[in-house]
Amino acid sequence: MADKYDVIVIGAGPGGYVAAIRAAQMGLKTACVEKWIGKEGKVVFGGTCLNVGCIPSKALLEASHKFVEAKHDFDDMGIQAGDVQMDVKKMIARKDKIVKNLTGGIAGLFKANGVTGIEGTGKVTGSKQVEVTDQDGKATTYEADNIIIAAGSVPVEIPPTPLTDDIIVDSTGALEFTETPKRLGVIGAGVIGLELGSVWNRLGSEVTVLEAMDSFLPMVDAAIAKETQKLLKKQGLDIKLGARVTGSEVKDGEVTVKYSDGDSDQEMTFDKLIVCVGRKPYTQGVIADGVGVETDERGFIQVDDQCRTSVPGVYAIGDCVRGPMLAHKASEEGVMVADIIAGHKAEMNYDAIPNVIYTFPEVAWVGMTEQDAKHKGIEVKTGSFPFAASGRAMANNATEGQAKIIADAETDRVLGMHIVGQHAGEMIAQGVIALEFGSSAEDLALTCYAHPTMSEAVHEAALAVEGHAIHMANRKKRK
């Protein structure tokens, strides 16, 4: 038997590494198991988020957006940039450097906080045992009073479009293109599909997004989703709703995709195809038979509100449990569980988790949509404010989009905030704080916002809930 720990975490993604660091900070002897092999053939920390998800995709989104700005928007500002070109290989190399720096940074944080990193594939073999198999196939059993499963998730593959070389790829493969494909197909108009489609659309690809559902971004407030769809279409994304993919054929370095649009069978040919139809929990092989940890029919580990599994002392967090598959949700669950193990009372507000799509403009939301509230029978009042009326947005050449606040009609309590606009991902924190503290729309309306800022749109939206917006014509009379 190898060393015994107070806590062993399986997985060093944004849930696992945060849980490990927090547990160590609480004075617990902690180890974190990770099997992810990086490009240099060594185990790296950070999971999907840092290696092939949140961070690398944002590096490409930022680079491609600056390219579009330089090519199309600088002239309007009086900047003569000339014939701007994009070096795709250099863009990818920069992305890889950022990933390397951040994954190495986690190793440094482990060392600074006293977390032991264990390389290999972890499996829970008992209520207090974790077996780790290294790259050579050698298995070592570790004992721990508490186990946190943070194994994450993997992209979903669909039978009509099996991954093929580098022609049909998943989201990971889409981060590795070394040249811009002329014709790019994307299956799935969700967060990942829209972000990756935007990157390559900006760099010159003819992008077609095939979405099986008839509605666009159904999890977003309808007004915000409608405006987002209009803006992305204006940028050149051809989004086909109600397009159910039925098959594909790879031939002569290109792929022909067959799909049904409800009326007839269609087909399109692409140079590259990205499959972005969602993710599934990575739990197969993580828990040995007979341990007693329960999973549902989709592979999610069943947990209570504080991430306890059916086995005492075994917890699970992040993408492998219920709730949104978001890095920050996983991290907060990791902190909560570490604090509980350390003997503290901790809980998490799942009604106040922000979501962001990093297109341009960004789309961000937290809490209920207007349609959610109506479905639950809650009478609401809303306030919206367009960035077209914002002085800072005009100065930034970013007048597209709006901010919207949804409040309870009776109590005025903020139920949701939805934004499409530049820096929406930063501004949505105001909505998260409002929900966390039970703020009213009036609380936001009475808050002094700095001028000129993009956030003033949130202030004006709060004022607009009662028809008191200053910088636009009001439909409601002052009381």
Structural account:
By secondary structure, the protein is α/β, with parallel strands linked by helices. The chain has three domains: 4-154 and 280-348, FAD/NAD(P)-binding domain (3-Layer(bba) Sandwich); 168-277, 3-Layer(bba) Sandwich (FAD/NAD(P)-binding domain), CATH 3.50.50; 352-464, Enolase-like, domain 1, CATH 3.30.390.30. 29% of the residues lie in helices and 25% in strands. The chain has twelve helices and 22 strands. The chain has helices at residues 16-25, 47-52, 54-73, 88-113, 191-202, 222-235, 327-341, 370-375, 391-395, 424-436, 441-445, 456-464, and strands spanning 4-10, 30-34, 116-119, 121-126, 129-133, 139-149, 153-155, 168-169, 183-187, 206-211, 238-241, 244-251, 254-260, 265-270, 272-275, 279-281, 314-316, 355-357, 362-367, 380-386, 402-408, 414-421. The strands form five sheets. Strands 1, 2, 3, 4, 5, 6 and 17 form a seven-stranded mixed sheet that branches. Strands 8-15-9-10-11 form a five-stranded parallel sheet, covered by helices on one side. Helix 1 (16-25) runs parallel beside helix 7 (327-341) and helix 3 (54-73) packs antiparallel against helix 4. The longest helix is centred in the N-terminal third of the chain and has 26 residues, at 88-113. The protein is globular, with a radius of gyration of 24 Å. It starts with a strand and ends in a 15-residue tail after the last helix. The model has no long low-confidence stretch (mean pLDDT 96). It catalyses: N(6)-[(R)-dihydrolipoyl]-L-lysyl-[protein] + NAD(+) = N(6)-[(R)-lipoyl]-L-lysyl-[protein] + NADH + H(+). Its EC number is 1.8.1.4. NAD(+) binds at residues 188-195, 211, 278. Its main location: cytoplasm. This is Dihydrolipoyl dehydrogenase.
